[in-house]
Design goal:
The chain is built from 6 helices and 3 strands. By secondary structure, it is an alpha+beta fold. It has 2 domains: about 100 residues, K homology (KH) domain (GMP Synthetase, Chain A, domain 3), CATH 3.30.300; about 35 residues. It has a 3-stranded mixed β-sheet with strand order 1-2-3. The longest helix is centred in the first third of the chain and has 20 residues.
């Protein structure tokens, strides 16, 4: 009779990440933060040849690493956000340049391939703020608060 293993099944753990389900590992989160900080420094100090990036300030909001740490999806927001698609396209055209800079800064075994994506959370937050400022929504929220207050008073 064999003893049950105390280790989790490797296929169950890694399969969840391969298909995009489950939370990233601590290793992925730590590597993503290292890449994010290094990219922020690179974007501040280096200047790629692409004219669409000249004088543009970019915030790296998040970096998501693949389970093998060889690929990084970098979520970015240009200052002002007005020309985001143009800036993201320029960042992706310059991805090899940024990867080279990253490789010189980091001590990781592999330097990840970089893919830049516009971070939509700022736009979504602005949309939600506009919704909450709508007089009809505000009236409904205030009416809902009154109903909850009435229910708690009656208890």
């Amino acid at each position: 009779m064999s003893r049950p293993s105390k280790r989790p099944q490797a296929s169950a753990h890694h399969g969840a990440h391969r298909h995009g389900h489950g939370a990233p590992s601590q290793r992925q989160l730590r590597a993503g933060e290292l890449v994010r900080h290094a990219l922020a420094d690179i974007l501040r100090e280096e200047s790629p040849a692409d004219p669409d990036l000249a004088g543009v300030s970019v915030t790296v909001t998040e970096v998501r690493m693949s389970p093998d740490l060889r690929h990084a999806v970098c979520f970015v927001e240009p200052l002002g956000g007005g020309h985001a698609q143009q800036v993201v396209a320029a960042l992706n055209r310059s991805a090899r340049f940024f990867r080279g800079c990253l490789g010189r800064q980091m001590t990781a075994k592999f330097t990840p391939d970089l893919k830049f994506v516009h971070d939509e959370t700022f736009d979504e937050a602005e949309r939600m703020n506009r919704l909450f400022d709508d007089p009809r929504v505000r009236r409904d929220l205030e009416a809902g608060g009154d109903e909850r207050q009435d229910e708690s008073d009656g208890a």
